[in-house]
Each structure stands twice: as structure tokens, then as C-alpha cells.
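pasting input
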Amino acid sequence: MNYVGMFTLMKREMVRSLKIINQVIWPPMITTALYVFVFGVALGSRVKAPHGMSYSVFLIPGLIMLQVIDSSYGECSSSVFQARFMNWIQEMLVAPMSAYEIVFGYISGSIVRALLIACLIMGLGFALVHTLPRDWLLYFGVIIDVGLLFSALGVIFGLMAEKFDHLAVLTTFAITPLVFVGSAFTPAQFLPPSILRFEYFNPMFYAIDAFRYSYTSASYLPLWLSLSVITGLAALCLGIALSMAVVGYKLRA
Amino acid sequence: MKRYGEFTAVDDVSLRVRAGDFFGFLGPNGAGKTTTINAVVGLARLNAGSIRVFGYDNVTQWREARRFIGLAPQEYNFDRYLSIRDILIYQAGYFGIRAREVRERADMLLERFGLASKAKLDYLKLSGGQKRRLTLARALINMPKLLILDEPTAGVDVELRLELWELLQQLNREGMTIFLTTHYLEEAEMLCRDVGIIRAGKLVAQEPMHELLERKGKGLQEVFLELTRSGPAELV
């Protein structure tokens, strides 16, 4: 195993994130602060949340998951695509790095960025609504699990895309709508049964519900079910991303 | 052999480059030079045949084979997010060399290529000639035994070209095997001990440079044109 190569790529991804900090670190912070202000502080007192918690406290885990999903997909998809498009991926392809090491290098860099953003928003949540996770193991575990799932999806789309526009397809037509209807803002208990039925096909619903448990010790779905669904999907996407890299899909002629 | 769909880019090319050689691989545009290089470094996968680099098969023992190779591609493909010094250090990292072990070598190479004062800059701030030097420095960072150069002097001025020739000769004298593709035939004639000429994916000549020129009784340009212009592609 070329651990040094993999670590170098992970470090490179972090350097990239810091170089474009105004695109990838500050926007999620500002967006979250605005969501908390508009939905939590301004409207939150009129909205009921389950288990007697305040709506602002209910909101924070959903907002963290929203940004974790968005940043892990965005990091991997744009970084892999850019490296292909500008051809600097050759630096890795001619080096003694396996497809597994390259994929894990990208994914680990992306998960580190997701963890950083999650922790910054957690700090913001603490400052604004005085809430912190109760179960730290679950908190980090779900972030890593969900980060893995969406980073792997990012690798898949980064390899498939022919132009930057293609990367936005998943975000615009799947990720953002599914997160918004996936109980990030709305407690599942308050959804009409006809809509709730569709939530069982929404992976974001499982991710947000499991993550919210780390804050509130309460969830709509059994925790084991949510974790199994996320882990299963992460394994599936990782398998696809690795297979594409191993066959050299759009990488090696 | 390497095929892209119905198109055969390289066919029945059997090359042997001796350790320590300065080998010129010549051919017109689209003849299969870059495809051959890509096959050697693992960027292209062969449909048939095999390649060994210092005894290591570049498919079954790819990790060992790649450690020996430094590639200077024709196009600039530097990482946009790294400084010039970091481009070298990260490239070494991909080769499994830790940053602390390679910093000194990176600084030495930047010094040797006249880029020391630009070490912290973005590569976009470099001139064409400086980018060409950086390509070479990056290819040398992992201490390769085989340096593959794809048109290393394309688009550089005469002064830099002479400077690069001197540097390549020096590297070769130090024992490095050099595999060079170029369209500048005087460059190949001046630098290379052995030469291979490819046309339409087939090797049409492979022998020591002086023997080829003596046998044909012509300069390299005439020989090249004779071999690459007409008739079926056959090894002469």
C-alpha cells in the first residue's frame, strides 16, 4: 500500500479547500446562520417540534447534515472532474498509486472537509441556540458514514461528467430537493401519511433522522434501520466508484 | 498493440532501450509516439503485448515499474492549487516519498532549473520556458532511472533549448536512461545514441543513430522523410 501517496492526496484536498475557503467553508456557515435566524429564531417559536424540544434545537442537526451532504459531494465531484479536465490527475496516474488509493485519498480529504464544516456549524449552533450533541460517537459516525456515501457519489459523477454543468445535475435535481423534504426542516411526525410514505425511499431522510438522534436522543425511525440504510448505500456507491477507477473509466485509455 | 475502437494506434512495435541509453523516438504527428509513451507509463492499456521497465512488467508489477519512471509530458498539467515548490513535493508524495525526505531535493531542483525565486508562486505566473523547466523538475523529483520526455523543447526559445540539451546530456552522463520524442530532428541527431522511427503505428527503423545515418548516407532529416513519407510501413 502506498499510504504516503494516499495521505498526500488527502492533504492536497485539504489545501484545495483552504485555497477556495470563500467558496467552500464560509458559505455553509453564513447559510446556516441565516437558516437559524429565519426559521429558528424568527419563525421557530410558532412551529412545534417533537419530544418537546424547541424548533431551533430540532433544526441544527438537519442543517449540519445538509452541509455535510452538500460539501462531501461537491468536494469530490468538482475535484475529480477538475483533475480530469485539467489533466493533473496524470500526476497520480503515472505514480505508483492504485485506483483504491486514489479513490480513498479523494474520499478521505472530502470527509475531513465535511467534519470541519460540521464542527464549525456545531459551534455556531452552540453559540446561537445553546445545543450540543449528546452522543459524540454517533455524531462523528454518521458524519463519516454520510460523508463516505456522498463523497463516493461525487467520485462517480466526477468521473462521468463531461462538463461542470453535469456535476450540478445531481445537486439541483436530487440532493437539494431530497434534503429539504427529508425532514431537515420538517419533523416527520407532522408530515401527512401520503408524503411520509415517499420518505422511506429518500436516503436523506435516514441520514438526517439518524444524525438528529446524536443531538436529541430521539428519532422517528429505529436507529439501526437508518444506519443500515446509509451504510448499505455508502458501500454500494463506494463499490461503484472503486470499480470505475479500477477499470480506468475516463482515466486510462 | 494499442487500438482505440477500430483505429490501431500502435501495432507490432518491439522496442528495446538499453539502460543508460539516450533514445530518440521519432515519427510524424499521429504516428503513435505519445500512445507508446502512455503505454509505458500506464496511461494507456495495451490490447496485446507487454512492456518491461528495468525487468518489471508494467501491468503485473506496475508499482515497481512506475517507481523507475519520470514523465515530462508535452502539455502543462500542473496542479492549479499548489505552489511551484509544492508541485514537486506533492508529486514525490504520490510516489510514496515523505515531504520531509524530499524538501531538500525539491529546493535543489528548483535551484538547478532557475526556479528557486519562484518557489512560492502559482505556476500560472511562470513564462513558457519556466513551465517547461518545471515539467522537467517534476519528472526528476522521484529520482527516476528512466526519464521520458514528450517534446520537451516544443515552443521554447533557442537559449533555453540549448540549456535543456546540456542538462539532458548531463543527466544521461550521470547514468539516467532518457527516452525522448521530438519533432526537432537536429535535436535528436545531436542528443540521441539510438533511434526508433515510427510511422502509422508501426516501427520502421530502430538502430544506433550513427549506423542508420552511415548506412543511408544521408542526414537524419532525409532519412526521416524517406522512412515516413511513402510506401508500406516496414522495418528497414
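fyi Residues 89 and 102 of chain B are 6 Å apart (CA to CA).
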